[in-house]
Amino acid sequence: xxRCASPISTGRQPLSRRRWACARRGARRTRSSSRPTGLDHxxxxxxxxxxxxxxxxxxxxxxxxxxxxxxxEPGIGPAIRFVGPGGIAYEVYDGMERRPxxxxxxxxxxxxxxxxxxxxxxxxxxxxxxWVDVLGFRISDVADGLTWTRCDQDHHGLAVAAAPEGVExxxxxxxxxxxxxxxxxxxxxxxxxxxxxxxSWGPLRHGPGFNLATYILDPDGVMIEVxxxxxxxxxxxxxxxxxxxxxxxVITLWGPPAGPEVLQAGIPVLAPRQVSVS
Length: 278
Ligand SMILES: [Fe+2]
Fold this sequence. Notes:
It is built from four helices and 17 strands. By secondary structure, the chain is an alpha+beta fold. The protein has one domain (2-98, 111-268): 2,3-Dihydroxybiphenyl 1,2-Dioxygenase, domain 1, CATH 3.10.180. Mean pLDDT is 86; it is low at 9-32.
């Protein structure tokens, strides 16, 4: 399994009934739309038809997942769609149209790729089990109620935190995008300042994955992380997952602590829909 994508509906409606802590906090920017803001599905690419067939077989054998059809979206290969624990919808596809890099068109500055998604859920344990047993992810690190998993050499592609006790549901806390290095991250922050967009959190260095990170809220209330220097796990045999529970610092090794805006962030996962786009 390699690479992640996360189509996010950009309709802007109040989320108050489906949010956790924000449910009691009220105001958030809205505009009229027939669709709520939320996560539509998580897209994951497999390497070849054999791997797609294997995922399909594991999904069919899993009591936790429901197949809801296959994607037929422009630009991607054969795909299957299913819904797993926590109501998270996935699309697993074999191949995507890509344009090769050339010497005349080298990698540009700015965002390099969508790197990871982090959820919060009252079904965190079941979600992690599904990622590992059905999707084939591997656990990278754990902390109290938090699990980071990977499907390639990036330290994490999917992560989930347990919901506070008594809170039900699943939220996407943030989606994260990689830039090349610290200098690029600095340029990104400079550009935000020019646009009068304040950082919600950071710059900081996380513990799990050791990435340098910044966070902003987009106009729809979706938390976005831009990061660099995420730990690369190139030798699967020698990597030992870290249990951060006993460490003095976990989420923030240095940098400002997370404020209420970050702690209360999250958009709902949307009800699955049958997708067949021509
Ligand atoms: Fe993150």
